[in-house]
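Side project, low priority. Logging it here so it doesn't get lost.
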Amino acid sequence: MGKIDNPYISGLSFNSKEIKQGEIFVAVRGSSTDGIIYVPEAVKNGAAAVICDRKSIISTEILFLLKQRNIPLIKAGNPEITAAKIARMFFPKQPKVVFAITGTNGKTTIADLTEQLLNLMGIKETATLGTMGFQSRNKKFRKLAKDINNIIGINPLTTPDTITLHKILDMSYHAGITHMVVEASSDGIMRNRINEIDFYSCGLSNIAEDHLITHGSMKNYINAKFSLFSRLSPGKTAVFFNDNLYTKKLTNYINKKLRNNLKIIRYGSSSPNNEIQIKEIKPKQNGYEIKIRIFNREYLTKINMAGEFQIYNALNALGFVLSSIPKKNIGLAVDMLKKLKTVNGRMEPVKKTKKGAIVYVDYAHNPEALRTVLIEIRKLTPKRIISVTGISSGKAESRNETARIAGKYADIVIFTYISPRHETTDEIVAKQQKIFPGGLHGGQTRYEAIKMAIDMAEKDDSILINGQGHERFIVEYGKPVPFYDPEAVKKIIDES
């Protein structure tokens, strides 16, 4: 065993249940189970070959089954890396320009703003792939979007597995997509899901403490983020925020560790060496007027979105676009920044209550994101901030810190849940109240918590509902339940 001689291999899959006749089953070792135990099911469904981890412990029964059926077993140092190579063979095409964006926060917003900016520049064959699934503003790609979203499901991974990702890129190419933005999560990068993709540019929005259970330490988390840029070929472009404590170290990482002659576009205000340098920010109604220097030439433009962090998101999008257009079009790209619109579920002003409070919905699902959005809402709020907050029951460390931040930056805190796994609502709220005893119990449902906030809000208050954002489902004890924060807000206000 160890070599695939079958010329009729038809595909590959990580899921033994989805294996079809003639496909390769890729068995991955996880933290609690090893995919090798599912070989019998894969064989029953028609697997023509099996790839497993070199360290997998294989039972004599499975070895006998494979030998009896004359099915080759390939042992790999990393099955996911091997799967990426094979997936690229089965799905060899990809859009001409593929951007990858990583970062603790801002990935989805930057992906969307990049697509908006490309469209404003006259590039219409565009799409994004990430937390919000596969999206395109171009109506001719509706069927493609439907087909891809059927593949990845209603609650998709930020970055799909490598087989699915290569299939999506290939489908997108054949449908006519020329420019695509892919969100790259730290877990997706670490699991080699983005291998064998020819990225045009890669971006990094920011880094804050998150996913430490997955990565084990902040150092490992940073290294995972930075390693995205090792996927770039010489001459390609790295775009990143240069004011962050961690991201500003990326220049040294690229120049000393990678040494692959990348072009660099840094954005921010603290370093005079930034390729996109923020010179001045003036708050205006519904946004900001900004003066920026790009490659030593100054420009004046507007960002018509609430929240100063949106300036930085927009500049990452600008960096992506600048990496892929002629320099003569820089002025046009800068001018188009003023036409960018707020992304659904990202500090989105949903509706005013009948008493005159404004209700915002934001995806902020980790401590740093919540802190950032509360600080920005404070600047816009004459009176009180009412925070409706909760974190998935599986993220204990984030939930604790988020409760503390809500208590620090909001005037009234109402605790609720997001995607409970095994705890009851009362248990989830009690754990948050242990961190911030002043937080109120929002009731047994998220809807009740939102209604509580709307009922108590007065004129010139702001309500922030965080954690869910654009998502239209809550996964309650493993089962997707339809729920969309903006719809709940509008219904409650209309019926009040």
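Brief comment: Residues 107-120 form the longest helix (14 residues).
Revisit when time allows.
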